[in-house]
């Protein structure tokens, strides 16, 4: 439930910024068979951004030997902390070019959050639990959202203007080309998109009671 | 197959049965061994395939495990993520050598080789095992066999996750000879990996010898997968099963059948040795047994052969108390019985029952009837007037007389000289050696000894006799001929009133002339050199000539007139008489019929020989001649000598009966010279009796002979026979005969034999003389 709160929080920020002429984008992503695809990032780029807009601290928790949330979208320069809610230790790392880092075996809350100061996608894993994975998408734009279980994401308070719509998914098989997005006023726009995504069921984690060795 | 020896048969049966049982056993063993071998090899092949599969799976999982461990290594992943190629390579090398991998590689997600232990400094290139890589991309990871740079590897590909996939790690084991050898050591099977390379079959790995490998490589077609088949490689049989490894590589597992059969071959060899040894023992044993059985049997057979050959003296050996011993005992009793009987038969066969002397059979045997015998002289003695004595004084007296004569002969001759009785009043004396002088001296001695009258019941009887001397084997080719010729000599001696005559003198000269005579006789008949002479017969009561005897003459172109005594014996011996007699009868019948036509009715006699009488065609011939000429049968008279009847009395009697039925007159010739009794003659269908001329010659000198002739005439008349006297030469004799009641006379006193053409003239002269 944490990620939904985060989205709402982001949307609330956007609503405060451009109150006068605000458009809302509703994007729904499906697979080739029409199945809704959750955890896809929908990013509107190219809008003029007030540099003072705050970058609130994000968190990727480790709960029951899983990263939560699976996908985290942050603005460039955001810090993310990795609180460990499990009674055991994790070794969080990333070899991704945008942010290689490593938080060696720890329990509870790590000493410091990690600053994501470059744009790009970062795959985060745990060196102890191979199945644990999480993704961070670092973007310039503050206008982003990720699709829910219904495959749809909503971005409110979009300024009018010529923008680019970018779709991304951690398990996408192919990169999806950016597409232009023209907004003029208080329209409510709905966009349907398709993308191919590998299933997330590839690596199952073993049951917890077997994990105490 | 025929075994003539019981021994061989026993051995054959025993050894044959053993051979049958042994070969059946061997066949069974070999057959079941084959089944065991084939089943065992299939089982081993199946186990080998399972081992193979297990080892492949095992090394695959080993590689996968190793690769997975590597793929999770934090530093390794870090090195890859940071493009630290040197570190990546050293990690790969380190890991690879730890597990013994042939190669280790890191392959990027887009299929480019980023690090390769085989080519550390090489440029990035597409991964060579793209099939396996595609499979890994599809399913997350893959493993299998593939070829790379001409070598075959077992390859495993696993992803490197961080945590999303950042690359592939691939590693492979060399599939080479040492791989094959270790598999072979583990499974006990041979293995060869066949791979397609540029359309050729290569053998990248194998545990086999170079030759087998080549032989396998040369086969164009791979064996069908997963089916055990038999394959001959380099002349060795193999059980083979193919196991596909990849699209282009197939593992062939081989089990040498020869090897599998080797164990059984040893067994077969032992069995064969046992069988052979058994056969040898059996042959020896059964030979021993067979000998044990066969030896007494052979001994018996040997004894039987001896008995068969006429040797009854050797006792049959005793062969124990078993069945064969009992057989031998009864065999010996049989031998004794046969010996005794043969003794008796021999005595009967070779002994004359009347005199106890050896008989004619004995003499014939002595003269080589059953084989060559030493030379000897045979003297045949014929008593004078014995028939007349027999008839006049009775059989009993005749028999006693013959016994006394035999006794006297035995007493006369030296010891070692054989005396035997031939038949009737004929005796023979056999002297070894062919000394003519000695033989003649012996004849003179015997002749002299018989001059002494024999005393019988107080009566002095003059016997006397004449002898013929024949030499064996100079005088004849066989014993019968010798006796015949010697008997002829006896007759000749009698005719000439001599004590003896030599057979060699009879029949005109040396043997080669006789032979030529025999040859010429045939031509003589064709050339009509034979002539018939007729000697008139006078009816004493009427004083008229009422008949004539036909006599054969041979007018030889160079030798002149040959008397019958010189060629008739040979004609009889050679059987040529059978051709002469019909000719003679034809002549006689024709002549008699001609005379009849002229009003001269004569009864004409012709002489028949022994052979004629034994010839069944004679009676029909006579009938035919009579019928065609129209001559009444009563005008033909046939004369038979006593001895002619003796050879086969039954057949002779049959012929005589046929002739008698046809109405022809029959006459007994030379009566008194032989031994036939009147009692026998009485049973013959004869009409006439001709008294031998020997009696007539001495009619006037010997009162005894006169008495014999008188009683013979009386007896003849008593039997209803006409009595004819031969050899009447003087008027005194004719007068005596007329007074004695003799019916007919014939002789020089009446007329000599004359050609047929002269008879009518002579008759006319007679008539005119009577008329004067
Ligand atoms: Cu963990």
From TrEMBL, chain A:
Xref: InterPro entries: Cupredoxin, MauL
Keyword annotations from UniProtKB, A to Z: Signal
Cleavable signal peptide: 1-22
Gene3D superfamilies per the UniProt record, alphabetical: Cupredoxins - blue copper proteins (2.60.40.420)
Name this protein carries in UniProt: Methylamine utilization protein
Species: Paramagnetospirillum kuznetsovii
TrEMBL record, chain B:
Gene Ontology CC terms: membrane
Domain EAL: 514-767
Domain HAMP: 291-343
NCBIfam families reported in the protein's UniProt record: GGDEF
Top-level taxon in the UniProt lineage: Bacteria
Protein name per the record: GGDEF domain-containing protein
PANTHER family noted in UniProt: CYCLIC DI-GMP PHOSPHODIESTERASE PDEF, OXYGEN SENSOR PROTEIN DOSP
Pfam families given in the database record: dCache_3, EAL, GGDEF, HAMP
Domain spans labelled GGDEF: 374-506
PROSITE patterns from the UniProt entry: EAL (PS50883), GGDEF (PS50887), HAMP (PS50885)
GO molecular function, one term: cyclic-guanylate-specific phosphodiesterase activity
UniProt-listed InterPro entries: Cyclic-di-GMP_PDE-like, dCache_3, EAL_dom, EAL_sf, GGDEF_dom, HAMP_dom, Nucleotide_cyclase, Rev_trsase/Diguanyl_cyclase
GO BP terms in the entry: signal transduction
Coiled-coil segments: none
């Amino acid at each position: 439930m944490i990620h939904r709160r985060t989205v709402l929080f982001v949307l609330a920020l956007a609503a405060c910024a451009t109150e006068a002429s605000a458009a809302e984008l509703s994007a729904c992503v499906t697979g080739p068979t029409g199945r809704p695809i959750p955890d896809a990032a929908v990013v509107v780029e190219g809008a003029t951004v007030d540099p003072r807009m705050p970058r609130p601290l994000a968190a990727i928790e480790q709960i029951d030997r899983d990263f939560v949330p699976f996908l985290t979208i942050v603005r460039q320069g955001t810090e993310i902390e990795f609180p460990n809610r499990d009674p055991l230790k994790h070794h969080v790392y990333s070899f991704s070019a945008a942010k290689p880092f490593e938080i060696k075996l720890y329990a509870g809350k790590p000493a410091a959050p990690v600053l994501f100061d470059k744009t790009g996608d970062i795959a985060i894993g745990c060196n102890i639990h191979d199945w644990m994975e999480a993704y961070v998408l670092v973007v310039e734009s503050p206008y982003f959202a990720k699709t829910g279980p219904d495959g749809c994401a909503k971005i409110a308070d979009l300024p009018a203007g010529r923008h680019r719509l970018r779709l991304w998914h951690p398990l996408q098989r192919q990169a999806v080309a950016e597409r232009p997005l023209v907004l003029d006023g208080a329209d409510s726009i709905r966009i349907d998109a398709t993308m191919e995504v590998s299933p997330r069921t590839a690596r199952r984690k073993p049951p917890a009671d077997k994990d105490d060795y | 197959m025929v075994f003539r020896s019981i021994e061989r048969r026993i051995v054959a049966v025993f050894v044959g049965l053993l051979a049958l049982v042994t070969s059946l056993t061997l066949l069974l063993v070999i057959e079941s061994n084959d089944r065991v071998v084939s089943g065992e090899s299939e089982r081993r092949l199946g186990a080998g395939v399972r081992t193979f599969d297990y080892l492949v799976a095992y090394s695959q999982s080993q590689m996968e495990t190793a690769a997975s461990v590597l793929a999770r290594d934090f530093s390794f992943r870090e090195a890859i993520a940071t493009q630290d190629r040197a570190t990546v390579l050293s990690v790969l090398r380190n890991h690879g050598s730890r597990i013994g991998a042939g190669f280790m590689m890191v392959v990027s997600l887009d299929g480019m080789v980023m690090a390769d232990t085989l080519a550390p400094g090489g440029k990035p290139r597409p991964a060579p095992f793209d099939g396996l890589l595609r499979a890994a991309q599809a399913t997350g990871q893959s493993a299998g066999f593939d070829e790379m740079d001409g070598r075959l590897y077992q390859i495993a590909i696993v992803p490197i996750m961080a945590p999303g996939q950042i690359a592939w790690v691939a590693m492979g084991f060399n599939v080479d000879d040492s791989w094959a050898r270790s598999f072979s050591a583990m499974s006990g099977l041979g293995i060869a990996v066949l791979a397609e390379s540029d359309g050729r079959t290569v053998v990248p790995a194998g545990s086999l010898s170079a030759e087998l490998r080549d032989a396998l490589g040369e086969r164009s077609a791979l064996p069908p997968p997963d089916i055990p088949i038999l394959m001959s490689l380099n002349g060795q049989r193999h059980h083979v099963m193919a196991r596909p490894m990849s699209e282009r590589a197939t593992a062939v597992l081989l089990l040498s059948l020869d090897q599998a059969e080797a164990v059984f071959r040893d067994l077969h060899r032992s069995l064969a040795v046992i069988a052979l040894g058994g056969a040898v023992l059996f042959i020896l044993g059964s030979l021993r047994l067979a000998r044990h059985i066969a030896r007494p049997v052979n001994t018996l057979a040997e004894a039987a052969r001896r008995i068969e050959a006429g040797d009854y003296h050797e006792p049959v050996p005793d062969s124990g108390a078993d069945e064969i011993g009992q057989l031998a005992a009864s065999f010996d009793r049989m031998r004794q019985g046969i010996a005794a009987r043969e003794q008796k038969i021999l005595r009967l066969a070779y002994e004359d029952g009347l005199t106890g002397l050896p008989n004619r059979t004995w003499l014939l045997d002595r003269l080589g009837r059953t084989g060559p015998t030493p030379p000897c002289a045979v003297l045949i003695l014929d008593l004078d007037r014995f028939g007349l004595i027999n008839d006049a004084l009775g059989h009993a007296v005749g028999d006693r007389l013959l016994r006394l004569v035999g006794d006297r002969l035995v007493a006369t001759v030296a010891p070692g000289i054989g005396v035997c009785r031939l038949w009737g009043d004929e005796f023979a004396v056999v002297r070894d050696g062919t000394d003519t002088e000695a033989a003649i001296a012996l004849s003179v001695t015997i002749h002299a000894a018989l001059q002494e009258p024999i005393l019988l019941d107080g009566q002095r009887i003059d016997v006397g006799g004449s002898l013929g001397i024949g030499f064996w084997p100079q005088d004849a080719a066989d014993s019968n001929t010798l006796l015949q010729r010697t008997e002829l000599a006896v007759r000749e001696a009698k005719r000439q009133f001599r004590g003896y005559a030599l057979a060699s003198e009879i029949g005109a000269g040396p043997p080669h002339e006789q032979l030529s005579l025999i040859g010429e006789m045939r031509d003589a008949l064709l050339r009509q050199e034979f002539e018939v002479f007729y000697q008139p017969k006078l009816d004493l009561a009427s004083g008229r000539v009422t008949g004539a005897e036909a006599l054969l003459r041979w007018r030889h172109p160079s030798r002149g007139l040959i008397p019958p005594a010189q060629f008739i014996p040979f004609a009889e011996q050679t059987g040529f008489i059978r051709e002469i007699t019909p000719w003679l009868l034809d002549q006689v019948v024709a002549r008699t019929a001609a005379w009849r036509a002229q009003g001269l009715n004569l009864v004409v006699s012709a002489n028949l020989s022994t052979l004629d009488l034994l010839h069944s065609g004679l009676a029909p011939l006579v009938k035919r001649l009579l019928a065609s000429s129209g001559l009444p049968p009563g005008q033909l008279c046939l004369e038979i000598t006593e001895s002619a009847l003796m050879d086969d009395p039954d057949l002779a009697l049959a012929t005589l009966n046929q002739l008698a039925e046809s109405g022809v007159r029959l006459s007994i010739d030379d009566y008194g010279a032989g031994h036939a009794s009147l009692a026998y003659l009485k049973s013959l269908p004869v009409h006439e009796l001709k008294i031998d001329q020997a009696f007539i010659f001495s009619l006037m000198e010997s009162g005894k002979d006169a008495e014999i002739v008188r009683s013979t005439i009386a007896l003849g008349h008593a039997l209803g026979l006409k009595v004819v006297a031969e050899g009447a030469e003087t008027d005194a004799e004719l007068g005596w005969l007329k007074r004695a009641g003799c019916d007919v006379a014939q002789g020089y006193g009446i007329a000599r034999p004359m050609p047929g053409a002269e008879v009518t003239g002579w008759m006319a002269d007679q008539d005119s003389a009577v008329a004067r």
